[in-house]
Amino acid sequence: METDPLDRPILSHIHGRLIVLEEDVDVAKAVRAMHSQKAEIIIVTKDIKPVGIVTDSDILDKVVMKGEDSDQILLRSIASSPVISLSANGTVRQALELMRLNAIKHIPVTDNIHILGLVTQEELANAIRTSVLERTFRSYRSIIRYHYKPILGNLGFILQFAGILLLAPAILATTLNETESATGIFLGLTSMFAAGFVLNTYGEKIPLNLKQASILIVSSFVLLSFFGSIPYMYVNPFLEKLDSLSLFVNSFFESASGFTTTGLSMITQPEEVPQSFDFYRSYTQWVGGLSFVYLVMMFFYPERKLVHMRGMIGGGMLRSKQLIITISVIFTVYTTILSTILYSLGNINNIDSVAVIFSTITGGGFVPTSTYVSGENTPQMLVLMVGMIISALPFAFHYAVFSKELKTTKLRPEVLVYIGIILISILIFYFLLNDHAVQSVWLTSTFLTVSASTTSGFQFIDISSISLEIKILLMILMLIGGCAFSTAGGIKVGRLLQIAQKLTKRKIPIDTAIRSISSVSSRYNKSYSSYEGKGGKLRTDKTFRESLLVISLFVLLSFMTGLVISYFAERNFVDSLFESVSALTTTGLSTGITTLNLDLVSKTFLIINMVVGRFEIVAIFYIFFGAIRKI
Fold first, then answer.
1. SS3 track for 555-622
2. Residues in a beta bridge with 74
3. Residue-wise over 381-393: b if at least 16 C-beta within 10 A, else e?
4. Which pTM value belongs to this model?
């Protein structure tokens, strides 16, 4: 137990800035001795026995101020006596008490024979203040040590690995001799490396709890978006004459839209920027959507320590090794196959075909050219739709398809419901679109329905000109989103099935749906598969309430941001709400509001929506409002 500062031994505070002189020494000689030895006090003795004390104040008041001749005044005439001393066994409390009772500021400390040193009131007071401050800040240091150092250490590691990942577009830009793009990307990844090194220096790379994992994931996406905006600021694919603040906000917007796989963009002519820069934009969606920056952490921690991290990045029912295989192998195979097919269909080069598929299978929505997504390119649109649907299916489903270790049985209900939602919505969209003068109604209806329901955000028609009913349908599809534990955004079909199960009191064999309440609630994963056992009802009730909370927050934040955009951008509320929902569900469909002319306030709110929506909103509340975990 820590000792009270007042009860500490006085010996820990003594010093030797004193001299011992006989009482018949004159003041002038005593002053010279004090100066030469840098003493603060004189112990006056008679026959070696202490009889008095002389301080600077005594000399000033009794000699100097009275105009006395210091050569004629002896120490015994100005010394204060008797000598008040303290035993070497005394404490700080006893010393201060003696000073208070005797109205003195200096006390010699003795061993009852010799004077060991001196303590002063000023030094004791400073020591107590320092002790109190140290004790106060020790708790803060402890908080930092046990709560935030692990976050800083892991965050530094993530930034360094992200820098390594970004070498791919940087090398591509160098190979293509696109100097401006290469320089911008290298600046971004170098900054990531440097920031990661600093954070590693002050942090500790150890496993995290739920709250720490939530803070790490959210803060890492903010920092990735920040450093990822450096290439945008350097290349400046926007207006030539742009003030520094607007350039930064626009760049951060585009970077956040990439890493969160939203796809909203103010770059209307991507074909005018360097090809490697287009690749970089889609590459950020591939990295952010498939959470590559977090997978590497799984090589360094035991399985049991990664339950929160795996849940946060969408692992669901997969073990860490299975999730690594799904993302790094299976999705790479998807990318290779689809980009090869797309390239073989023509109208696109090999680099752009890979870039488009990067955006497609992560639900991104960036395109290398403004005219590529078109109703005239039917075969290409079919390939993109396949990629979009892949992005919205659970990681576990993909793994189960290619592996005998896992069955798709528990995943089928959610997947079948999701496919059913898409088919029904296509029919509704078709009938609502019949009154519009569009080319190929079936293709348009199917493509936009898939784009909205997978939260991919590819579009080739002016959404601002379509009917209110179609806009509402698209907003509903975006809010529902894809399946749980996929790259898709939105509320997720699994949550809706979990609510349906609770309301109808029917047992639905959907392990994924039950556990998909929140990717940040993965601390409960161990028990969800057996929710009917002891305490099962309590767990089901909790996930039901959390599901309702997530849905409520999606709707509330959508309306709040919609009102802000409508006010500041001076656009009608429906279009503003559509833009808000699109950002919050990380979709990327736009009614034309997201342009370079959009005000900075609205852009900032859309950025917040993109980052918050990437982790289904509730992750933010788990960080700042612990009480929500107790509902």
1. HHHHHHHHHHHHHHHCCCHHHHHHHHHHHHCCCCCCCCCCCCCCCHHHHHHHHHHHHHHHCCCHHHHH
2. 26
3. bebbbbbbbbbbb
4. 0.74
Residues facing residue 46 across a β-bridge: 49
Handedness of CA 410, 364, 255, 163 (dihedral sign): positive
Cβ atoms of residues 576 and 565 within 8 Å: yes
Distance CA 219, CA 212 (A): 10
pLDDT tens for 414-442 read 899 999 999 999 999 999 987 766 668 88
How, if at all, do strands 86-87 and 106-110 pair? parallel
Six-digit token pair at 522?
């993965």
Q: Is the pLDDT at 518 greater than 80, yes or no?
A: no
- Tokens 């007042």, residue located: 6
Instruction: Assess contact for 118 and 41: CB atoms under 8 A.
Output: yes
- The continuous run of DSSP H or E covering 266 comes out as none
Highest mean pLDDT among 124-128, 353-357, 493-497: 353-357
With a CB cutoff of 8 Å and minimum separation 6, the contacts of 183 are 234
Q: With helix as H, strand as E and coil as C, how does 520-534 read?
A: HHHHHHHHHCCCCCC
**Phi and psi torsions of 91, nearest 5°:** -120, 170
Beta bridge partners of 87: 110
Pairwise CA distance, residues 174 & 168, whole Å? 10
Helix/strand/coil (H/E/C) assignment for every residue in 378-439: HHHHHHHHHHHHHHHCCHHHHHHHHCCCCCCCCCHHHHHHHHHHHHHHHHHHHHHHCCCCCC
- CA atoms within 13 A of residue 267's CA, in its CB half-sphere: 28
368-392 tens-digit pLDDT: 888 888 878 889 999 999 999 999 9
Contacts of 176 (CB under 8 A, 6+ apart): 274, 275, 276
Contact 322, 485 (CB under 8 A): no
Q: Is the dihedral of CA 411, 415, 416, 417 positive or negative?
A: positive
- From residue 551, how far is each of 126, 451, 476, 493 by CA, in Å? 56, 21, 12, 11
The angle, 0 to 180 degrees and rounded to 10, between the axes of the packed helices 600-614 and 210-235 is: 140
Burial of residue 397, with CB atoms counted within 10 A of its CB: 0-12 exposed, 13-18 middle, 19 or more buried: buried
Question: How many Å apart are CA 86 and CA 330, to the nearest integer?
Answer: 79
Strand order in the sheet with 86-87: 86-87, 106-110, 115-120
Sign of CA dihedral 427, 477, 360, 319: negative
**DSSP structural state of residue 3:** P
Give CA–CA dist 131/140, Å, rounded: 14
* Alpha carbon 157 to its chain's center: 13
Where is 267: in which H helix or E strand? none
DSSP code at position 72: T
Report the pLDDT value the prediction gives residue 512, as an integer from 0 to 100. Answer: 42
Distance separating alpha carbons of residues 430 and 176, to the nearest angstrom:
44
The DSSP call for residue 2 is P
